[in-house]
Amino acid sequence: MKVIAICGSPRKNGNTEILCQHALKSVAEEGLETELIQLSGLDIRSCRACMACLTTGVCAIKDDLPPVFTKMKEADGIILASPVYYGSCTSLLKALMERAGWLSRSNKEPFKGKAGGSLVVARRAGHNFTIAEINFWFQILGMTVPGSSYWNIAFGREPGEVLKDEEGLRTAWNFGKNLAGLLKKSSS
Question: Which domains does the chain have, with CATH numbers?
Answer without folding.
Answer: 2-180 (3.40.50.360)
